[in-house]
Amino acid sequence: MKLIQRRTAVAALGIAAAGLFAGQAAAQQTVTLRLHQFLPPQATIPARAIIPWAQKIEADSGGRIKVQMFHAMQMGGSPPQLFDQARDGVADITWTVLGYTPGRFNKAEVFELPFMSGSAEASSKAFHEYVEQFAADEFRSVKLLAAHTHGPGLFHTKNPVTGLESLRGMKIRGGSRIINNMLTKLGATPVGMPVPAVTEALSKGVIDGTTIPWEVTPALKVTELVKNHTTFAGTTGLYTQTFALSMNRNAYDRLPADLKKVIDDNSGVQLAAMFGRAMDEGDKVGLGIAQKAKNNIVALDVAETQRWRRTAGAVETDWVNEMKGKNIDGAKLAAEARALIAKHTK
């Protein structure tokens, strides 16, 4: 009997030790996460936000998380497919423009409405908080790390845009269906395409100009291809676009608890703010390059900007009516978005 008891005790100790070693092994687990995005590494967000974020993740994990970077669509596919690549596990983390998949992020679209926001940092904090409160269901297929916006959108054109009349008939690149509708209302001919296609489209004359923020102009060589840029009076830009840094849910769920905490501690509103600050800093760089090149920067005055506001206002009416057909209270969401932007702009 004593022999049996002794063997049972030894077996129990063995099981406990195995469990301890397994726990230690899990605690020492090293994970490689593949991050895929659509811009070259020297562009603003990769250089000033994504790469620094990845380096911090690696440092905070004691080197147990490795982030393998795939820039400029190196893993294949097209920018509109990036969100699904994170959802499906083709990549572990992706960064993309939400407007590249029209009709999918209905509630999130409100931030793209004309003259909605200005500073990218304030707008990004507002947008991430907005998504958490009012649009979380649109991101339930992934682990959302940060939702953010860029800074004030403006025109970069071959011929100067000095008022509404001079825009009419121009073929202008738009980055989403909301922006394309705005361009139509303003009298331009919208040409939809992801931002990496802008350089070739301008050089080949497919488009006469593009709507993008200052920050991405250096990476796309826009200030070399066009010599005119049109800005607007006031603190808000013509439009903004929305972005998401998303993680595959299974890739997140497989992490041990301490590595999940590393991801969680480096996600959320503060990460959105970091992306927004990078956009704001990039805007200053892009503007400086255009000024140094002595390009023509047209600053529309308050009266002319107000004309654009009135004309573009129909875009919000269209969106609210469309949302009503989907049982979404667009007017309420627009009010909530503006309230959050005001909160974070203080």
Which properties best describe this structure?
single chain, 346 residues, D-Maltodextrin-Binding Protein, domain 2, 2 domains, six-stranded mixed sheet, five-stranded mixed sheet, 11 strands, 16% strand
Question: How would you describe the overall organization of this protein?
Answer:
With 346 residues, the protein is α/β, with parallel strands linked by helices. The protein folds into 2 domains: 31-150 and 241-281, Bacterial extracellular solute-binding protein, family 7 (D-Maltodextrin-Binding Protein, domain 2, 3-Layer(aba) Sandwich), CATH 3.40.190; 154-239 and 294-345, D-Maltodextrin-Binding Protein, domain 2, CATH 3.40.190.170. It is built from 14 helices and 11 strands. The protein has helices spanning 2-27, 44-60, 82-88, 120-134, 164-167, 177-186, 198-203, 217-220, 222-225, 249-253, 257-265, 269-292, 302-324, 330-345; strands spanning 31-37, 65-70, 93-97, 143-149, 154-157, 171-174, 189-192, 209-212, 228-231, 242-247, 296-299. The strands form 2 sheets. Strands 7-6-8-5-9-11 form a 6-stranded mixed sheet, covered by helices on one side. It has a 5-stranded mixed sheet with strand order 2-1-3-10-4, sandwiched between helices. Helix 2 runs antiparallel to helix 12 (269-292), helix 4 (120-134) runs antiparallel to helix 12 (269-292) and helix 4 packs across helix 14. It is globular. The protein starts with a helix and ends with a helix.
